[in-house]
Specification:
- This protein is globular.
- The protein has two domains: about 5-130 and about 255-325, D-Maltodextrin-Binding Protein, domain 2, CATH 3.40.190.150; about 130-255, 3-Layer(aba) Sandwich (D-Maltodextrin-Binding Protein, domain 2), CATH 3.40.190.
- Strand 1, helix 2 (about 45-65) and strand 2 (about 70) form a beta-alpha-beta unit.
- The protein is built from eleven helices and eleven strands.
- Helices cover about 40% and strands about 20% of the residues.
């Protein structure tokens, strides 16, 4: 039995059993939900955020008896959709489904960011994580992180890397890796993960990081070489590729992105708690777990408090890194 299949029974029993149906208790009697819920995804359709949001929304529609509708509002690295929810009524009917960059990195990149992730939201919890895979062009002739570090130290100007753009998780992670390892890496920004990975395939840059769906085909046909994965455990679909810690690095140098729920600050605690319970119950369903795993996503189903602490730590971490690496938005 695979690791994914093996984990399904206890996930289903342990989390689905926590679902609450009916009126929410706390801060007075609140009947919730009594009308459709809108989930705003501040990114285009497709990708890990959209997939997770739609899977959870389907399960919530069935469990609550109210339509839970996903609405994509992309633009400005997630700023437009995130700000929309920040300014929405705090009643639980407009929910944000967001990633690490919009909450943790954007404050470091935009001095006039229209929302404050530490003041404008109540956090429901992290639903899934999307680990990144560090890949290299085979012509670099490196098979391990230690060999990559040695090569970068031996070359004037170091090794070039492709990113998803200035201030992206790719740039932040690889600049963090450069500082951790004491090497030089030359940044070449692209307009997203697919172009960055194709640049590695073509030999335009030496390395890149990307989500599993973006690179697994190239790994399997030998056009890129997987060096490490940014996860606390090996990935089901890449069992022979070490974690970044096993490879000699630190998870802090190849942080996964996360996809998580948030609501406007002031939303009643009872509603936040209900949403967390619904999220966990949806993520416990075997079909959801399998679909997420097939797309390189790891189920977390975390708590509101843990997510709040993660956002706080990220804002500090990425602000410090952006200053040290002189990373500024275009």
């Amino acid at each position: 039995m695979s690791r994914v299949n093996g984990m399904l029974p206890w996930l289903a029993l342990g989390l689905a059993a926590t679902i609450v149906v009916g009126p929410v208790q706390g801060q007075g009697d609140i009947s919730y939900p009594v009308r459709p819920i809108r989930v705003v995804v501040p990114f285009p359709p497709g990708g890990g955020a959209d997939l997770t949001a739609r899977l959870v929304a389907q399960k919530m529609t069935a469990s609550t008896g109210q339509p839970v509708v996903v609405e994509n509002r992309p633009g400005s690295n997630g700023v437009i959709g995130t700000d929309l929810v920040a300014k929405a009524p705090a009643d639980g009917y407009t929910i944000l489904f967001v990633d690490r960059g919009a909450l943790g990195i954007n404050p470091a990149m935009y001095p006039k960011l229209p929302y404050d992730p530490l003041k404008d939201f109540a956090y429901v919890g992290i639903a899934t994580e999307g680990p990144y895979v560090l890949v290299a062009n085979p012509s670099l002739d490196v098979k391990t992180l230690r060999e990559l570090v040695a090569l970068a130290k031996s070359k004037v100007g170091g090794v070039s890397y492709g990113s998803f753009g200035v201030g992206s998780m790719a740039q932040m992670n690889l600049e963090s890796l450069a500082r951790y390892a004491g090497i030089e890496l030359h940044h070449v920004p692209y307009s997203g993960a697919p172009p960055a990975v194709k640049a590695v395939v073509a030999g335009e840059v030496g390395i890149a990081i990307a989500s599993l769906p973006s690179v697994i085909g190239f790994i399997r046909d030998g056009r890129v070489r997987a060096i490490a994965v940014g996860s606390d455990r090996r990935l089901e679909l890449l069992p022979d590729v070490p974690t970044i810690a096993e490879a000699g690095g630190s998870l802090e140098t190849l942080l996964p992105t996360y996809f998580a729920f948030a609501v406007p600050v002031g939303t009643p605690l009872a509603i936040v708690t209900r949403l967390n319970t619904e999220m966990k119950a949806a993520l416990a369903q075997p079909d959801v777990v399998e679909k997420l795993a097939a797309n390189g996503l790891v189920v977390r189903g975390g708590t509101a408090d843990a997510m709040t602490q993660t956002v706080r730590s990220d804002v500090e971490r990425f602000t410090t890194l952006a200053r040290a690496a002189r990373i500024k938005a275009d």
